């Protein structure tokens, strides 16, 4: 094994070259490297005086991901790190480059000395560049959907990784919420339009939290853990403000009817931005419990770094769950005019999901009792596997609660066994060679449930399979029995990979459904901001000419995962084909979860509270 330094130039023109990122990594036998720690320097000129001179050799320079991003690997000649190892020459090319890398290397070397390598971290598998690259791309969609004040993000990201990529974005919706004296300017638009829908937005946050809690270490391999947390916080900041009192939750910003009469950039919206809310007389157990799940899971993510923020989130989560449970009703029944967009087909699954996250976040037995008591019998006792989605979280709760049975010493709690059984049934349905394999697949093997936004189900299913696989692996669980056949964790991981590979281009259309990744990806994404030139003067209705335009989008919605293929695996890249070309933030969260899991192998933590 060799130690290496892995430098990544941030996106962008020379003005950003003062900032560089370096990874302290191990070279693995197969030639790839696994990142142990990311460090960055924003003041590379200031080389710590202690840095010694020694032998360092530039081994490779490979452009990767993006023409503006390069990847530099250097190998120390020794196989073991030592404090006295010193650094001296760079080859000529490097010495004359504007990178000013030697300073950073020196910093990194000092870092090696200071850090003393922790060998326990090295048991992790090798990093798979395909998934690592795709993950970096996928995460950017959250910035595309934010629109406002991108500078704020860089407080946490540093290195200005994205501003040049999303240069076509500007502030928008700054006054959102003002009609109720609230600041709802943050949050994310749900898809290709300019609306903020609380129900899918909260789901996005819950999934992103889950991904961070399980695979934050994998995100760190590509220096995107803080970035993911920043995206999450952008939503949870919104959710906090949307919950001004115990029994009131604002769940929508903007009027879909008015919005859909226009084809305009959010930056140039002039319509009124009315709000919708649920309360005691117009209850919304589904949206309130999902929001509770989002805040409870996020409270775990921020627990260590910002305990005040974490406690605030947890307080809101508990109140929202109580509100959801005490005043039962579906938000789209209370507000039927909302059913046309994100119609909730029931709130039982969200109550289970919310209680599951609250139990993970608090360890409070009352939530466990809820999950194994009478309420659960009503809400969780569903025949057969269900599909995990923004509307139905039961399968997610089954996998999350299996975590307790498999890793958390809760195997004795009989009520939880039913959730594990539910998760096993789902896993058996997903595995293509299982006797109970679902037939809802394309010929090439992609799980295929709905024509609209078809990739949501395979990606969500693959994320759950990857999680379940890791729970099996970490707990050394026996085989998974499906009828007479038995499978192990690697079968589930292979299934998860098969779905991810399909999304990334291994499909009959030979197209990557992740915009910005691969050689060929959709160019006519159904997305107002991406389809309208940054300097266009059009407003509401005259903007439809950009929808009708025969030219590809002028702006690339980097990281967008489009709706996806038909059952016959065909895909029509047309801007007006929203069924297939519209991206959504919740799908991005699911994809980020899936890709994070696949970046490398590692055991998951035994308890999410241990983070
Ligand atoms: C439209 O938005 C852009 C930012 O994307 C801004 O520069 C421009 O001034 C806006 N135009 C109008 C008419 O609001
Ligand atoms: C709930 O909200 C609706 C609509 O905003 C409002 O008319 C109603 O009075 C509210 N109910 C309570 C109990 O505050
Ligand atoms: C919304 O879901 C409910 C419950 O499944 C269903 O009865 C209703 O018809 C749906 N409404 C729309 C507009 O799809
Ligand atoms: C987009 O498709 C809809 C429905 O298929 C159609 O009514 C509309 O005219 C189309 N718009 C454009 C700009 O092609
Ligand atoms: C594939 O399916 C879609 C939707 O059902 C259909 O419109 C299209 O014609 C089919 N394409 C082929 C090549 O069969």
UniProtKB/TrEMBL annotation:
The protein's matches in PROSITE patterns, at most eight in alphabetical order, are given as:
GH9_2
This chain's source organism reads Hibiscus sabdariffa
What's the protein called, per UniProt? Endoglucanase
Q: One Pfam family of this protein, by short name?
A: Glyco_hydro_9
- What are the entry keywords? Carbohydrate metabolism, Cellulose degradation, Glycosidase, Hydrolase, Polysaccharide degradation, Signal
Could you tell me what reaction this enzyme catalyses?
A: Endohydrolysis of (1->4)-beta-D-glucosidic linkages in cellulose, lichenin and cereal beta-D-glucans
Spell out the family assignment given in the record's similarity comment: Belongs to the glycosyl hydrolase 9 (cellulase E) family.
Look up the signal peptide feature and give its range. Answer: 1-31
Active site per UniProt: 526
Query: Where does the Glycoside hydrolase family domain lie?
Result: 131-595
EC number in record: 3.2.1.4
Q: Say which domain of life the source belongs to.
A: Eukaryota
PANTHER family, alphabetized: ENDO-1,4-BETA-GLUCANASE (PTHR22298)
Q: InterPro entries, per this entry?
A: 6-hairpin_glycosidase_sf (IPR008928), 6hp_glycosidase-like_sf (IPR012341), Glyco_hydro_9 (IPR001701), Glyco_hydro_9_His_AS (IPR018221)
């Amino acid at each position: 094994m060799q130690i290496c330094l892995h430098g990544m130039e941030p996106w962008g023109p020379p003005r950003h070259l003062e900032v560089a990122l370096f990874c302290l990594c191990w070279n693995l036998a197969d030639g790839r490297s696994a990142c142990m720690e990311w460090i960055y320097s924003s003041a590379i000129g200031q080389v710590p005086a202690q840095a010694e001179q020694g032998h360092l050799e530039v081994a490779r320079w490979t452009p990767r991901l993006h023409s503006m991003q390069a990847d530099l690997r250097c190998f120390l000649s020794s196989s073991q790190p030592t404090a006295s190892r010193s650094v001296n020459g760079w080859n000529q090319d490097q010495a004359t480059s504007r990178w000013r890398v030697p300073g950073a290397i020196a910093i990194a070397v000092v870092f090696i000395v200071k850090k003393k390598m922790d060998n326990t971290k090295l048991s992790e598998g090798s990093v798979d560049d395909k998934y690592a690259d795709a993950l970096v791309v996928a995460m950017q969609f959250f910035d595309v959907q934010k629109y406002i004040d991108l500078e704020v993000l860089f407080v946490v990201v540093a290195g200005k990784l994205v501003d040049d990529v999303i240069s076509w974005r500007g502030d928008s919706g700054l006054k959102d919420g003002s009609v109720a004296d609230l600041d709802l300017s943050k949050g994310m638009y749900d898809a290709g339009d300019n609306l903020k829908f609380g129900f899918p937005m909260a789901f996005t946050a819950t999934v992103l939290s889950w991904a961070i809690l399980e695979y934050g270490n994998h995100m760190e391999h590509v220096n995107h853990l803080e970035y993911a947390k920043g995206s999450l916080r952008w939503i949870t900041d919104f959710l906090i403000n949307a919950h001004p009192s115990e029994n009131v939750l604002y769940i929508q910003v903007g009027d879909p009817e008015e919005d859909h009469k226009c084809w305009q950039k959010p930056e140039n919206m002039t319509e009124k931005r009315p709000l919708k809310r649920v309360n005691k007389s117009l209850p919304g157990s589904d949206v309130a419990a999902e929001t509770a799940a989002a805040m409870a899971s996020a409270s775990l993510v921020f627990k260590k770094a910002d305990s005040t923020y974490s406690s605030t989130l947890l307080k809101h989560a508990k109140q929202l769950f109580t509100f959801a449970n005490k005043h039962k009703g579906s938000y789209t029944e209370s507000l039927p005019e909302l059913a046309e967009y994100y119609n909730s087909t029931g709130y039982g699954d969200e109550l289970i999901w919310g209680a599951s996250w609250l139990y993970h976040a608090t360890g409070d037995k009352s939530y466990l009792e809820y999950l194994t008591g009478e309420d659960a019998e009503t809400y969780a006792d569903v025949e057969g596997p269900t599909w995990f989605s923004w509307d139905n979280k039961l399968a997610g709760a089954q996998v999350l609660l299996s975590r307790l049975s498999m890793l958390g010493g809760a195997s004795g709690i009989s009520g939880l066994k039913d959730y594990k059984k539910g998760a096993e049934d789902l896993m058996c349905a997903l595995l293509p060679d299982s006797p109970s394999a679902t037939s809802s697949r394309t010929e090439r093997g992609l799980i295929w449930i709905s024509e609209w936004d078809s990739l949501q189900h395979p990606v969500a299913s693959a994320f759950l399979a990857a999680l379940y696989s890791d729970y099996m692996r970490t707990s050394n669980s026996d085989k998974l029995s499906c009828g007479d056949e038995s499978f192990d964790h690697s079968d589930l991981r292979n299934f998860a990979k098969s779905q991810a590979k399909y999304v990334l281009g291994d499909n009959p259309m030979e197209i990557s459904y992740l915009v910005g990744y691969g050689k060929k990806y959709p160019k006519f994404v159904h997305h107002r901001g991406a389809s309208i030139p940054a300097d266009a003067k059009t407003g509401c209705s005259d903007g439809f000419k950009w929808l009708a335009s025969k030219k590809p989008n002028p702006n690339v919605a980097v990281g967008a995962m489009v709706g996806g293929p038909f059952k016959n695996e065909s895909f029509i890249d047309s801007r007006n084909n929203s069924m297939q070309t519209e991206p959504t933030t919740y799908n991005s969260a699911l994809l980020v979860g899936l890709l994070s899991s696949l970046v490398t192998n590692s055991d998951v933590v035994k308890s999410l509270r241990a983070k």
